[in-house]
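Morning run. Coffee first, then this:
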Amino acid sequence: MTDTIALRAKEPGPQDPALAPPPDQGAGIGRILGLDAARAVAVFGMYYSHVGPWADEYGTWKSFLMDLPHGRSSALFATLAGLSLVLIAGGSAPKTGRPLRQAVVKIAIRAVLLLALGTWLTSTGTSIVVILAFYGLYFLLALPFVKLRARTLAILAVACGLGGPVLVQLMWTATWTEGFDAHDPLVQWGGDGLLSLLLMGTYPAMAWMAYIFTGMALGRLDFTRKAVRVRLAIVGPALGLLGYGGAWLLGKLMPEPATGFDDEAYAAFDEAWKQAVGSADTDTWTEEQWKEFDAENAWIYDKLPADDGSMGTGFDWTALTGATPHSDTPFELAGNIGVAISVIIGLVALLGYCGAVSKWSRRVLAPLIAVGSMSLTVYVAHIAGVWFLVDHPANEVGYETGWRMWAVFCVAAMLFALVWKRLLKRGPLEWALTLATKPAKFVK
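And here it is:
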């Protein structure tokens, strides 16, 4: 009787941790692999935007499909960057105290290094609008918000998505920007200046922080919960429909704006342009060739009609109603965020929460996952490739961009990433960034 009581005393009670199910290691790994796969999708999309083909015609299904990577790939990359920031700060279980301070220092170091690397790459004269300097500023702007909850971060994303485009549009009417740029050291070093990074560049922070805050909000969510994944699977497509569908509907309802352009008034300029260009293929010209052309043919610009003010110089509200790539309107931001959420949650679910299908998918998508695990390295590598093959080729002619070059870039990235990952854990630049952030451990 005594032995029986003793045995029962040793049995775990209802709240005993021994009764809790073991953590789903496969699901946790699946989230990491899913995010890596999403990064690879973003990288290959940017490859396509920079060296892929362009549609010969517009308004067709073919042109629609060929246009998909433009704008959406870099938006997905930015959303993933925001998600990564929060993961450094603890993810769904936020760090506090010293660990949080160390995480903030790590993010700050990464930000400064990305700002420097992006500025240097831009100064090389590459034809690609390098996003890394913009990322560096995004990271710095995000630092005060790394402790916030998912709901608060989502509200900030909405605020940036609505207010950011208005600020960007207002800046295009400003007249003092040239004077500011003249004293901006980033501009003098050959990179994007502070105004460009904040408001006037291809990826203006005041609007693109909507992607960063969205990613940060995603990072605060617990993807192991099925309810969270289901909600995101609904929210993503819904935002895409709201953004792209809303812009399409407004385009149908709004009257055609008066542009102030008269084709006949430009006839003389068009004729002069054709005469000056001749049979030259201007698509392959470098910046130096364009400067030489402008210097030799400055007379053709005298053929332009004088601006009598009919073209308008004030704030244009209609510019905020479209959703074309890099228009940075509220509709484009909403649509791109919807695509980003859909891609992220789709790949995370596929690689982490589909049982046997997930294990099979991890093998099939291994090259994609390897590329995503060193996305900074393969992104910078493709900038170097474009610089050598297109911008400053040894044969002074350049290689033709299109499907072939895009395929070569993608295959080369996958082969490199697979081989490198077998030998070392991190990509070269990822390893350098990790090494550079080591001093953060001394933060008290």
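The two ends are 57 Å apart (CA to CA). Good start to the day.
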